[in-house]
Write a structure and sequence with these properties.
2 copies of one chain form a homodimer. With 280 residues, the first copy, chain A, is an alpha/beta fold. Chain A has helices at residues 7-19, 35-47, 75-84, 95-98, 117-120, 124-139, 151-163, 193-198, 201-214, 220-232; strands at residues 2-4, 24-29, 50-55, 89-91, 105-109, 143-147, 169-173, 239-246, 260-268, 271-279. In chain A, helix 6 crosses helix 7 (151-163) and helix 9 packs antiparallel against helix 10 (220-232). The N and C termini of chain A lie far apart (40 Å). Strand 5 (105-109) of chain A pairs antiparallel with strand 5 of chain B, so a sheet runs across the interface.
């Protein structure tokens, strides 16, 4: 396994592989790898000749008051995990290479980036769309893998890839969870013991919502109140959003009679967690 | 020579050429080809195995009150010219293919897009950057050719290509002019006989400015007044801008002591013309 820090080198290596007819599977990450990432890597390993994992904590997708500085970093551990999974290349560029002096260009997916997490994290998805476009150009993968945990991100990346005619296939893999249901996230390490326990209510509430819908409830407003009540009952009151939205447009749904996404973002102490469930 | 209307087909053909080790030279145009375009095509022909010319009048780069509807269209004549220059492929997609239902993604080059033409044509360079990104992804050229006539566009495309790590080399070719100095433009056909004659003052004024600078004048404000006076003397009073700017940042220069761009946009009757000159 190689660790490549240079954009030029990464580009050259990818081009060589492509010329030799090799397929490239790509898993873009911010490091702090957990089983969720590893499930993407394993799928990439199964489906491609070469697997590239990028580790880049993209400053452009963090707001000024967000956790860019304290975001977990552990290249050594990440390298071990990647090696164990048969990754061929870790692409690990420096921010000063990715955003050189007089950097000016941004990719923006309108409407889809303004709602849900985009509403409380302005600029976040512009940062994500931009860095993913850059990484796709540098790595030139055949297939790129994203997690359903970041449902809005996956929808935005898919739309962006289609809209800009980027020749990369996007695969979205299921969210992995702890045994008690908590969605795997690099940010879970921020939680103390009590917070960790409280956090399980998120998935409990989403499952409850799904059950209500299965039992014939279709009033989104009522279902959202139920989710909120459950979450509040754990003493969690700082809720960024609980939304039931259309899977394509991410626009709020009033009456549930089709595929939809129930997504939420809440603060457990000083940690912001997101989770979601899809209703089909 | 083939005319390809399908994005998928264009993409497939380009990929095949790339796999066989052929280099692709690309000239993106809005049709209504003139000698300026042909000079780009000839250079592309010299430097590449395959030459692709796109003809696409991009609705996204026209403002609601601009000349999208009346912009000259003549595929038959353009095809003849391309064939004569040894073009291999004309890519001629329909707007409904380029911007399918629920199209949402835009590329924007900050700061460089807000000044000069960008100030009077809001959204114009966002439209340009977006369509060029799309065309680059579809055609996957080795080298793309642009004209210095659209100086700001060329600077924006270069910055965008660098910033997004797009693997395309950008070549900017000199502005071609009529014998009397008028810069070649597809929009020159809008001019009546008198306007056509009046329009020569633009290049005269730019040349005068260059001469003043060569003679030691370095006060941008004074030089701009001189240009304005000359243009006004032809009865032309609707001036969008006359600016002397840094070649990299496009920021206005007060004192000229380095490379700079003198650029202008004026209305001759109901036709908006642009021209520029570089001082090195």
């Amino acid at each position: 396994m190689r660790i490549i820090r240079s954009i030029k080198e990464m580009f050259k290596v990818s081009k060589e592989k492509r010329v030799r007819g090799k397929t490239i599977g790509f898993v873009p990450t911010m490091g702090a790898l957990h089983e969720g990432h590893l499930s993407l890597i394993r799928r990439a390993r199964q489906q491609n000749d070469i697997v590239v994992v990028s580790i880049f904590i993209n400053p452009n997708q963090f707001g000024p008051k967000e956790d860019f500085k304290k975001y977990p970093r552990n290249l050594k551990q990440d390298s071990l995990l990647c090696k164990r999974e048969g990754v061929d290349i870790i692409f690990y560029p420096d921010a000063s290479l990715m955003y050189p002096v007089n950097y000016r260009t941004y990719v923006f997916v309108e409407k889809l980036s303004d709602c849900l997490c985009g509403k409380v994290r302005p600029g976040h998805f512009k940062g994500v769309a931009t860095v993913v476009t850059k990484l796709f150009n540098i790595v030139s993968p055949d297939i790129a893998y994203f997690g359903q945990k970041d449902a809005q991100q996956a929808i935005i990346i898919k739309r962006m890839t289609r809209d800009l005619n980027i020749p990369v296939k996007i695969k979205v893999m299921p969210c992995l969870r702890e045994k008690d249901g908590l969605a795997l996230s690099s940010r879970n390490v921020y939680l103390n013991q009590k917070e960790r326990k409280d956090a399980t209510v998120l998935y409990e509430a989403l499952k409850k919502a799904k059950e209500l819908i299965r039992n014939g409830n279709s009033d989104a407003k009522k279902i959202i109140s139920q989710i909120k009540r459950l979450i509040n009952s754990e003493g969690i009151t700082k809720i960024d959003y609980i939304s039931i939205v259309d899977l394509d447009s991410l626009e709020p749904i009033q009456k549930i009679n089709n595929n939809c996404l129930i997504a939420l973002a809440v603060w457990i102490g000083s940690t912001r967690l997101i989770d979601n469930i899809t209703i089909k």
